[in-house]
Amino acid sequence: MTIPAGAAPRRADRVAADLSGLSRSHVQRLISEGRLTADGRPIKANAIVPAGAILELALPPPVEPGIEPRPDIEVSVVYEDDDLLIVDKPSGLVVHPAPGHASGTLVNALVGRGEPLSAAGIAGVRRPGIVHRLDRDTSGLLMVARTDAAQAALQGQLKARRIKKTYLALVAGAVAAGAGRIEAPIGRDPGHRTRMAIVAGGRPATTNYRVRERFDGWTLLELDLVTGRTHQLRVHLAGIGHPVAGDPVYGTGPARRGPDGLERLFLHAWRLDLTGPTSGRLIRAEAPLPPELAGVLEALRGAGRPASGAGRAAPPRPLA
After folding, report:
1. 126: which strand partners?
2. Which of 13, 83, 88, 135 is catalytic?
């Protein structure tokens, strides 16, 4: 990793995290093991790295967890070719095995399906085929690489922000602007270490939004995830005073409960636009809102519909 000419001097751990795509905490652990060198010499996390310096980060071999095949877990495939799958993950399904979730995850289901998955690792742990993640309570589209080359290519596209990830979210309140951009750094909440927050010194994070439909007390948004920080959309929307409906962590009051009939987080990864690693062609995949979310919108539309046809709002745009 070579620091570009003209770059401002920065801490070694921040530079290595940004250039490698790993989390800063993981990079700091690697640095503490002496795995980061500048021009061939080991350096500390707080060392200031100037432009032109050559950094090398030696990654340990990924840890190989035992993956129990779970062919009983259904996998909804939206798109597939020799390089990748795009699956529609339901809410409540954890993506990969971790402490507390050794089985019953999407990866277990993929192994049970007999998928030829990439063996590459993320943050030092083998997570077969996983290119990016969705929170357990978020539904929608997830890319899964079938080969190491495809995984590297897709992660490169993510790092270069050439993959467009569009979400749908119902948020509390009336969002004033029809479209907007949220730019606020995200890091660990200093008062609640299991949560994320907008904090000075956090990692840069950007979210674009557009109003899709308005209801009494709620707004349906399209969201472009420009960066991919942990809980980014939930933190950013709560930060502007419009938390996601049904969010038990970042929501308060009515937002925490959501409208009548909502029993989960109203956040759905709706559309993916990417380039095929081998074909080079544009791939667009979409997953319509699952029935439990579509039904909430229908109830809100019914609650706001006039008794007669006079004065009725224009019909909403289709969601797929």
Report:
1. 121
2. 135
